[in-house]
Amino acid sequence: MPRQKFCIETLINWNIQTTRMLKVLDLGSRVRPCLRLMMFLSLLTFLTIFYFFSDVSSAGYMKFLRRNPNLETDFYSTAPDTYSSDSSINQTGGSKEGYLVWSPSCRIPDLDPWHESIRHLIHREEPMVCSELPPLTRVTGHTLQLIHANAHLYGEENSFHCCYQEITRRDADKFSPKVDDLFSVSNCIHFDDTINLTSEQQFIMVKCVAPWFWFWKKKIYTNLHAIVSIRKDIKKKLQNNLTLDRQKMSVLIVGIDSISRLNLIRTMPKTVRFLQKMGWVEMKGYNKIDDNTFPNLMAVLTGMNYTQVRKGC
After folding, report:
1. Which of 5, 64, 113, 147 is the most exposed place for a label (fewest CB within 10 A)?
2. pTM for this model (two decimals)
3. How far apart are CA 91 and CA 98, in angstroms?
């Protein structure tokens, strides 16, 4: 407070002395508009500096950055100790309280996932119901199956026809920020029971139509299936790595797209608790730099952004 009082008195004395000098020189009427502007800018600069050093760096501001155990309410009916509040665990590459990362080039605050300022935004969303009828198809392993037990719910089984289409990315090997928007859909292949899919097919769209009026047909069923399989090129890489003259893989990195670390803590508490229990290393300082998986993985593995990867690789 003494320092703040001294600064205010100094500013007032400077303005008084300047006004007296202008009166002596008889320049008051001509310089008065400029003087007012200078006084306003000086006062604005002083108040900005005063506010920054007296408020932003105070302990009151840091309360938002520190994790408050009382606010760690579990909104999803799980134990309240879902996420550890130990500050030593949350520190990453820095020693300043209230920050995950504190370095000359990067500062990431340790924000509370359940802070009271956002608690009104956290709630459980009801699952989206696309149809009240059970599914007509399913994928088991690499086999697409028509569920005959549910066929009567969509009409007479002999009256409708089903086909499937493969969905593939276009220009998947090219560097493009809009790679997710480019895809191709193959011709629809008819099936009436089961069909064996290849290991290269990852996404399947199924359509079923039934006679409606004259030669027109109506769509009675549409579904998308994602097939999780080991692709041939990936399998070949794994087999090549198992040779005696090569060192085996020893590090496993698991990443989840389209979700932030704080949202993972809020919406998937059981997963977070399992990872902590198993001793997984949490990359608290990791942040996305672009859309899609490739540029973000290249950044964390090589330290290069999208432009550098495209130019150097």
Report:
1. 5
2. 0.56
3. 9
pLDDT in tens, 197-253: 988 888 999 999 998 887 788 999 999 999 887 777 888 887 777 777 777 778 888
| CB 257, CB 263: distance < 8 Å | no
Please tell me the distance from the alpha carbon of residue 172 to that of residue 157, in angstroms, as a whole number. Answer: 39
User: Three-state SS string across 114-159, please?
Assistant: CCCCCHHHCCCCCCCCCCCCCCCEEEECCEEEECHHHHHHHCCHHH
Q: Please tell me whether residue 209 adopts helix, strand or coil conformation.
A: strand
Q: What angle in degrees, to the nearest 10, is found between the helix axes of 28-51 and 2-24?
A: 170
Closest CA to 271 of 250, 249, 255, 291: 255
Please say whether the dihedral angle defined by the alpha carbons of residues 79, 99, 258 and 252, taken in this order, is positive or negative: negative
Instruction: Please name the amino acid found at residue 120.
Output: H
At residue 218, φ and ψ (nearest 5 deg) are -115, 145
What string of DSSP letters covers 83-119?
A: S---HHHH--S--STTEEEESSS-EEE---TT-TTTG
Write the single-letter amino acid at 308: Q
Tokens of 53: 């050093």
The alpha carbons of the chain give a radius of gyration, in whole angstroms, of 32
